[in-house]
Amino acid sequence: MASHNLLLLPGDGIGPEIMGEAKGILNWFGKRGIASFETETALVGGASYDACGKAISEDTMKLADQADAVLFGAVGGPKWDGVPYDARPEAGLLRLRKDLGLFANLRPAICYPALADASSLKRDVVEGLDILILRELTGGVYFGEPKEIVTLENGEKRAVDTQLYTTHEIERIARVAFDLARTRRNKVSSAEKRNVMKSGVLWNQVVTKIGKEEYPDVQLEHVLADNCAMQLVRWPKQYDVIVCDNLFGDILSDVAAMLTGSLGMLPSASLGAPDPTTGQRKSLYEPVHGSAPDIAGRSLANPIAMIASVGMALRYSFGLGEAADLLDKAIANVLATGTRTKDIAEKGSNAVSTQEMGAAILKEL
Ligand code: ATP
Ligand code: MG
């Protein structure tokens, strides 16, 4: 049985609490002989700043680079509001994404039948929803140069952001989208704004070419990003994989998140390019939510987003799709029995603790 080397970065706030439950799940798979994990734990975010004055240390960066995958909790909190910009807790996560080259951000939006009434939309619109937003994470308007505010001669100011994509950047995210679609319902929807943006024109051309030449078996459709936002709220089940740039992905994945109920339910994966010789990708798995300082240290956090992130690691880094399916099924079954943490419980009804939710999922496994 192959052994996988995982770096655990619990971080701040509820990070350590939910990471504790993720560890329990990893141990279970180890004990059952399904997979074996070697884990190492290190500091990131505010916890790292307190220890060494940096949001992530060089030693930890080295561990992340050597690991088969990184499991990340959450960072930040009011305690670190005043720290220097470059040492702010979020800088640790941004450095990891950038230095590990994690260009592909996978955000599944799954609506468990038991939670369909917690969605902002009607039950029949979201029940059984299982879509995946694939966001390009290291390019586009977030990083394009020039990026500046300039004062003009007449005293007026001018702000510039640059939306910039190369063929290579679009090709590699397109391939991830098509590969993912093949493991799902075989459909890719590519969202851009080719009607007003040159980057949208190139995006559309490159995705079309990759689809035709390399993935003729996968259904491809193009949708304008604004229309996609509307369609997500109108009838989201028409989608399987939605692929888009950094900015549209940021917005569309937040829209999709609201279809599913609670922030405490949403996992994510960030993947790098496959190594040309080994085929291995750098990868980081984390819940979509933040460190929730308002509930930290009180065993109130929902650990499902973190536990489902472990499931994504099993699926996308370790080739353990069946184990991931088993874990997803256990989560769905536990929810079906009515077990709820406070964020997903109906007002006035009983809620379980972080640890009780973790234990219930283990028992169901
Ligand atoms: P960030 O900027 O790091 O994304 P944020 O400001 O978006 O953070 P979160 O930390 O995600 O905020 O918290 C938003 C709200 O959702 C808070 O009220 C928090 O308590 C709640 N919340 C977030 N994650 C969970 C969770 N796992 N379980 C229960 N409640 C959660
Ligand atoms: Mg947030």
CATH T-level fold name of the largest domain: Isopropylmalate Dehydrogenase
Strand arrangement in the largest pleated sheet: 2-1-3-12-11-4-5-10-8-9
Which stretches are low in confidence, meaning pLDDT under 50 for 5 or more residues running?
none
Order of helices and strands: EHEHHEHEHEEEHEHEHEHEEHHH
**Shape call:** globular
Beta-strand percentage range: 15-25%
CATH architecture descriptor of the largest domain: 3-Layer(aba) Sandwich
Number of domains: 2
Class based on secondary structure composition and strand pairing: alpha/beta
Distance between the termini: 20 Å
Number of helices: 12
Bound molecules: adenosine-5'-triphosphate, magnesium ion
Number of strands: 12
The Cα radius of gyration reads: 21 Å
Q: So, the CATH homologous superfamily of the largest domain?
A: Isopropylmalate Dehydrogenase
The average pLDDT value, as a whole number, equals: 95
Query: Helical proportion?
Result: 25-40%
In short:
By secondary structure, the chain is an alpha/beta fold.
List keywords for this structure.
alpha/beta, Isopropylmalate Dehydrogenase, ten-stranded mixed sheet, two-stranded antiparallel ribbon, binds adenosine-5'-triphosphate, binds magnesium ion, IsoCit/isopropylmalate_DH_CS, magnesium, Isopropylmalate_DH, NAD
